[in-house]
Amino acid sequence: MTADPRIAEITARIIERSKPTREAYLDRVSQAVAQGVHRSVLSCGNLAHGFAVCSPAEKVALSGDTVPNLGIITAYNDMLSAHQPFETYPAMIRDAAREAGGVAQVAGGVPAMCDGVTQGQPGMELSLFSRDLIAMAAAVGLSHNMFDAAVFLGVCDKIVPGLVMAALTFGHLPTIFIPAGPMTTGQGNDEKSHIRQLYAEGKVGRKELLESESKSYHGPGTCTFYGTANSNQMLMEMMGLHMPGSSFINPNTPLRDALTKEAAKRALAITAGGNEFTPVGQMIDERSIVNGVVGLHATGGSTNHTMHLIAMARAAGIQLTWQDISDLSDIVPLLARVYPNGLADVNHFHAAGGMGYLIRQLLKAGFLHDDVRTVFGEGMEAYAIDVKLGEDGTVKREPIDDGPSADPKVLTTHDKPFQPNGGLKMLTGNVGKAVIKISAVKPERRLIEAPAIVFHDQQALQDAFKAGELNRDFIAVVRFQGPKSNGMPELHRLTPPLGVLQDRGYKVALVTDGRMSGASGKVPAAIHVTPEAKDGGPIAKIQDGDMLRLDAETGTLEVLVDAETFAAREVATADLSGNEFGMGRELFAPFRHHVGTADQGASVVFG
């Protein structure tokens, strides 16, 4: 059990709240476990289709129930730098499975889009919905019921949450997530941000901007800043779904390959045919989810996970709320400084001690539930390690020292935190509910009271900035950007102009029913405002000139208008027809119609 009674109390209330849905979920998992995977009862035609391309030896093995078969769900494509390394993984996993006395097959592929490519483009409006689509696509792959365990190959923003939702839907299967690792360090993220601001001001051209971006994103692996993709990897390790120490090893290295082979063999070892049967739906529980949230706060992770964690938890019958996440943030200190919360990238974080050091510090402070099941066995203590390549080419793990990290400016001890809380808070008030990430926002900028300037898309704000109309104190209200309006795209194009205005000395902030994700930085941004404008939320009643008060310290978001006057206002509308077609958006109309609210996970299938 966690030693901190405050975290134990929050966990207990999640358990109590979740009882009806969690018990029903566990009953379904138990029934599926009891039924098992019985390939021998498939019809001969079913089975022949299932192993038609296998070798003669594999066909013999799969014709019965004694040899385990490992299903691979892959998000490989060679456009995404983070997913390109997965091209060679299936062959590697098949070899490892063969060495372990099993068989491995690619059960299916799932789509994997890059938010970095689609930022500010029409395709970005498919991004959030791709998470639920990925869960569905993975379910199709696993529905053949040919598999005793599964491994999931995915890294980036919506891909890992979607894969987790699928894995928990197939909760009777043991499951391991296998990462690809971050790209090597290129141009510093602070310099990249500086060039973006210069471009926004018209001081450098497209040539200089593209040169800068290409120096930052230059090879295979995850982008090196601490956005949603790298927050995903942290979460998988904190929740016990990765092999210990595997999150941030660079692609195409001997250690990366050794970890991949080890994960495949471990997945076969925890099937029902062995002595360590670990169905993922029973393994992941309320304590695992809380550990993930604790890790999010301790590292200053992505705001996207205020939605993804809720949707992932619901897939396991667990009812997590924004209030739980916010209350945990008040308790857990910030122990890592990784861009945009600092100048270091994830490679620097790993070199400083990485996940092993972070977990050691969180365990020492009593912030983690140690008594959880993981794919590696019992307890989080096994994850407080340094991972290396042994002389024989296999994975070697050593306990992490209790002393200072290799770089205390990047990774600190629990008793000397960078700030006393995780910096991710829920805001409430007469505008609705929202979340804000303040780990990179200076204390003097966490309270902004200023008149509203209302926009219905991010291009309108860009145009106003370029026209010189925003050189003043204001709070930008960018609405009709929620999931029902247009799929809730990330609004990263707002970051450079707002950053420029803040650097000029103006008090600026953002209020939106859209997203800013893991790159939320130095400008205070109340995001995911719920109810959204399309649902008639109060944000749709705000008018130009209304005084707004955003207080990230007290957790309030208010429009300072007489309550009776504000209530009597008509709800604004917007012409959203331009968001309904092009780049596949017409295919996602049912998603926009049926999607749940941001505080419920913005999911089509789980609320």
Automatic annotation (TrEMBL):
<dbReference type="GO" id="GO:0046872">
    <property type="term" value="F:metal ion binding"/>
</dbReference>
<comment type="pathway">
    <text>Carbohydrate metabolism; Entner-Doudoroff pathway.</text>
</comment>
<dbReference type="Pfam" id="PF24877">
    <property type="entry name" value="ILV_EDD_C"/>
</dbReference>
<keyword id="KW-0456">Lyase</keyword>
<feature type="region of interest" description="Disordered">
    <location>
        <begin position="395"/>
        <end position="418"/>
    </location>
</feature>
<dbReference type="Pfam" id="PF00920">
    <property type="entry name" value="ILVD_EDD_N"/>
</dbReference>
<dbReference type="GO" id="GO:0009255">
    <property type="term" value="P:Entner-Doudoroff pathway through 6-phosphogluconate"/>
</dbReference>
<dbReference type="GO" id="GO:0051539">
    <property type="term" value="F:4 iron, 4 sulfur cluster binding"/>
</dbReference>
<protein>
    <recommendedName>
        <fullName>Phosphogluconate dehydratase</fullName>
        <ecNumber>4.2.1.12</ecNumber>
    </recommendedName>
</protein>
<keyword id="KW-0479">Metal-binding</keyword>
<keyword id="KW-0311">Gluconate utilization</keyword>
<dbReference type="InterPro" id="IPR037237">
    <property type="entry name" value="IlvD/EDD_N"/>
</dbReference>
<comment type="function">
    <text>Catalyzes the dehydration of 6-phospho-D-gluconate to 2-dehydro-3-deoxy-6-phospho-D-gluconate.</text>
</comment>
<dbReference type="InterPro" id="IPR020558">
    <property type="entry name" value="DiOHA_6PGluconate_deHydtase_CS"/>
</dbReference>
<feature type="domain" description="Dihydroxy-acid/6-phosphogluconate dehydratase C-terminal">
    <location>
        <begin position="409"/>
        <end position="602"/>
    </location>
</feature>
<dbReference type="GO" id="GO:0019521">
    <property type="term" value="P:D-gluconate metabolic process"/>
</dbReference>
<dbReference type="InterPro" id="IPR000581">
    <property type="entry name" value="ILV_EDD_N"/>
</dbReference>
<dbReference type="InterPro" id="IPR004786">
    <property type="entry name" value="6-phosphgluc_deHydtase"/>
</dbReference>
<feature type="domain" description="Dihydroxy-acid/6-phosphogluconate dehydratase N-terminal">
    <location>
        <begin position="68"/>
        <end position="381"/>
    </location>
</feature>
<keyword id="KW-0408">Iron</keyword>
<keyword id="KW-0411">Iron-sulfur</keyword>
<keyword id="KW-0119">Carbohydrate metabolism</keyword>
<dbReference type="GO" id="GO:0004456">
    <property type="term" value="F:phosphogluconate dehydratase activity"/>
</dbReference>
<feature type="binding site">
    <location>
        <position position="156"/>
    </location>
    <ligand>
        <name>[4Fe-4S] cluster</name>
    </ligand>
</feature>
<dbReference type="InterPro" id="IPR056740">
    <property type="entry name" value="ILV_EDD_C"/>
</dbReference>
<feature type="binding site">
    <location>
        <position position="223"/>
    </location>
    <ligand>
        <name>[4Fe-4S] cluster</name>
    </ligand>
</feature>
<comment type="similarity">
    <text>Belongs to the IlvD/Edd family.</text>
</comment>
<dbReference type="GO" id="GO:0005829">
    <property type="term" value="C:cytosol"/>
</dbReference>
<keyword id="KW-0004">4Fe-4S</keyword>
<dbReference type="InterPro" id="IPR042096">
    <property type="entry name" value="Dihydro-acid_dehy_C"/>
</dbReference>
